[in-house]
Amino acid sequence: MLERILTYGRMIKFSHTVFALPFAFSAVILAQRRHQMIISDIFWILLAMIGARSSAMGFNRIADAKFDTKNPRTSKRDIPSGRLSLSSAVVFVIFFSGLFIFSSAMLGKLCFYLSFPMLVVLFSYSYTKRFTWLSHIYLGFAISLAPAGAWIALAKTFSWSVLILSFALMTYIAGFDILYACQDIEFDKNEGLFSIPAHFGVQKALIIASIIHLASFCFFFLIYFVFDMNLMYFLAVVIIGILLIIEHRLVKPDDLSNVNFAFFHINSLISITLFLGILADELVRRWM
User: Fold this and answer.
1) What is the mean pLDDT of each run of 10 residues along the chain (288 residues)?
2) Does the residue 288 lie in any domain?
3) What domain range includes position 48?
4) Cα(first)–Cα(last) distance of the chain, in Å?
5) Among 18, 62, 94, 277, which one is most buried in terms of CB atoms within 10 A?
């Protein structure tokens, strides 16, 4: 049973939840300033996040199984290697889709109704590389719905202000996904798949990623004004800016050996730094 759980965890890269989850809970912290927070909502938001991400990643692994088998970098994944059958993956996706829908229903009718188009958006990403090099932007958009969804779950209504956090997440995700895609540039070209690195080349792709991450930093900084943050958050934004510079210094057109380190470790620090900055801001606000 433990081995089975670990296999499913590897399939969906559960550790990568650290990218979007801090943004969702950052939205919760900001939303509770204006709206009453119910502790049970936190529990259901967490389950909804787990359900949405797990089902989306599981669906992606199923949709990309044919390509993963051919790609030397991904051929050892659980479905291509035979450690996990396609039927088991389908059951996995159905279960976590159900968990997401049920958790959304527990957060109110609005969340329940929105859960269905949300799954369509998440699942659709798996096919974007078949026809557009803007797939990185679409991935960022799909994941950026997490903080907006968390806000609606807590506030039971929508606010335009949360879009600043969503835009920060969208550009942050899109930027590092471009860096990550540089590893598969030759494979994507051979298989007729679309990506910014395959379309523009590695050097231009890194420039595009830098521009997108500059926009991301601007959105992080804009949060300071939109939500009237204090010095604690400002310091977090400065750290995020430094981490983004380090990330782009690590990945070079003629040396992609540090892509995985930049992808997981640096980006994990950015997400966690954002959450800690917003949390520290809130604690100082209450203490004062």
Assistant:
1) 55 63 94 88 94 92 92 86 85 94 96 97 95 96 96 93 96 95 93 95 96 98 96 96 94 85 84 96 87
2) no
3) 2-126+133-283
4) 49
5) 277
